[in-house]
Fold this protein.
Amino acid sequence: MPSVFIKTYGCQMNERDSEAVAAQFVARGYTLAQTEKAADVVLLNTCSVRDQAEQKAIGKMQNLVNTAKKRGNEQLFGFLGCMAQSRGQELVEKTGVDLVIGTQKFHRTADYIDDLTSGRRQTVVDVEEEAGSEATIRDHIDLSALNESSIVGPAPQKVTGFVSIMQGCNQYCTFCIVPYTRGQERSRSIEDIVAECRSLVAAGYKEITLLGQIVTSYGKREIGTKKGKSAFVQLLDAVHEIDGLQRIRFTSPHPKGYGDDLAEAYARLPKLCESAHIPLQSGSDRVLKLMHRGYTRERFLTIIQKLRSIKPNIGLTTDIIVGFPGETDEDFEQTLSIVREIEFDNAYLFKYSPRKDTPAASMEDQVPQELREERHARLLAEVNAIADRRYSNFQNQRVQILVEGPSRRNASRLQGRTRCNKIVVFEGADRHIGQLMDLKIERVGSFTLYGDPAIVNL
Ligand code: 5AD
């Protein structure tokens, strides 16, 4: 039986796309290989958000292709996803891959591999734009084959499931390549999404994370606001009704779409976890405008105040870009000051990376690399100091976690998450996986809490 190995770069949506592609192969009788070396087909699902991510995937592929050549292996290699979409044919020339598939063609991956294996084609590059019909979206996220096939690869962890609710983005932030690689926004129907969530819950999943580039724009065109509730909140209401589902999360919202209806959903819907990843990008109104973000510093602060007034212990994380073109010392100080004011639990910091065909790439006043590095280091120190303080508040606290499976760092321990999205590691047994448990925090590490097994309710 041929085998496939898929490596994923970038966001959770890419993870989800890779799972769906794996499912296509499994449905055709392929096995999932544990390593690149052992696989007949090696696919890299790529990210284009920063240049670094692209270079990493290209370097990796060059190594793989060269090694296979040297050894005389007949492996097939392919790029999927955002970089495949934006670079296309160029990748064949640069790396010698057999296959390049864009973001709207994931559903054809296994067919193309069949064509290549049977010699019907020598190479395939398919990155054509396609009006994303709902059928295409549904097609490419069909997971059923994967759910039925725990015989191949490691048994999937069946505690937390991810469900794509939409594809694409219409925001056109001036730094961002995503609207060009993922296309226009298109949303699945509420019925479809609920049906997929139900089937995950029936298969034993306890928590569902709803995924989209900007989930707060979900169904704007297709569904619209009804009785003061945005389409996204209507969706949350519908998913919340599913019996047996214990927790709901979503990522990522856009501050622009964080209306009162969504803030109030945290008060109304007990399954909705008190946690939010809300990308800030900058604390300077001037830079926010240049970025085309559609909100001000003041508006962002108002959203945070509203959320904290409803759920004081809500876990809050964000993304910030430093060194956006034209960012002055004064602008950067504004970012430092809003970070100090809000006190996020964590912030993902990015040095601005010019992306092909985006407006910011050709703006004047590109910030020198050294200054980007310096600002990144200063902000990181601030973010980490705040996070350390916030995490240390959990010492000796009792928390409830949903146990997900083995700890990433030490497989002899288990890990779970609090409702506010903090990872907790503890000594437990396999039977705890999928359970909600109360633990006492005995030690606080870097972005990790350690639970006391003595008071685990066994
Ligand atoms: N340069 C640096 N960071 C970027 N991001 C998106 N585009 C760029 C870019 N050109 C960051 C944003 C976004 C996160 C996923 O990646 O902060 O929220």
